[in-house]
Amino acid sequence: MQYTWNDIEQHIAACTQCPLGQTRNLPVMGRGSHEADIMLIAEAPGAQEDQQGIPFVGRSGEILDRLFRDCGLSREEVYITNILKCHPPGNRDPREEEKEACFPYLKYETFLLKPGIIVCLGRVAAQRIISPDFKITRQHGTWTYRRNCMLTATYHPSAILRDPAKYDEVKRDFQEVVSKRSDLMR
Ligand code: URA
């Protein structure tokens, strides 16, 4: 049987595969276009996302929206999701067992979307999706090709909140994503 987007959302809403199911307020399923070429994968919902059930509604989301504006992208034309669908208390790093428990949901999202481009936001996503030894500082903006999909990573927007000087680097990485998407459409 093939799951639909709705099935995945219902499974996530009822999920008790890890202890975060007990501490979260709302699960945060991916959002955006189900026809998108570009899939962004970040780490885990923050406190505001946990309150609203929507990815990137907090301060990191404001940075992401600014990047989108500056690069001619919009939330409506991409799909944004996280490695974890539930907020880890205190914004701690996701634990191995939480990432493994949540991974099937990301697999289903990817299977249904079939993106041409995956952009990992931050170390946690890059190490889970691209390579366990991925070094975001040295390797952001580099590209890997896997099963009809181009993969890259850049800093998480929260890294720009801590160090605004990173904004231009991330903008360049996003501009390259937009340029690769134009290549895809040729
Ligand atoms: N940070 C993330 O990694 N994901 C969100 O959805 C919000 C903040």
What is the molecular shape?
A: globular
- Rg, rounded, reads 15 Å
Q: Can you count the helices? A: 9
Mean pLDDT: 97
Q: Classify the helix fraction into a percent range.
A: 40-55%
| Attached small molecules | uracil
Total beta strands: 6
SSE pattern, N- to C-terminal: HHEEHHEHEHHEEHH
Salient structural properties:
single chain; 186 residues; alpha/beta; Uracil-DNA Glycosylase, subunit E; six-stranded mixed sheet; 6 strands; 14% strand; globular; binds uracil
Outline the structure in words:
The chain has 186 residues and is an alpha/beta fold. The protein has one domain: Uracil-DNA glycosylase-like domain (Uracil-DNA Glycosylase, subunit E, 3-Layer(aba) Sandwich), CATH 3.40.470. The chain contains nine helices and six strands; from the N terminus they run ααββααβαβααββαα. Strands 1-3-2-4-6-5 form a six-stranded mixed β-sheet, sandwiched between helices. A hairpin with a 2-residue loop joins strand 5 and strand 6. Helix 4 crosses helix 9. The mean pLDDT is 97.
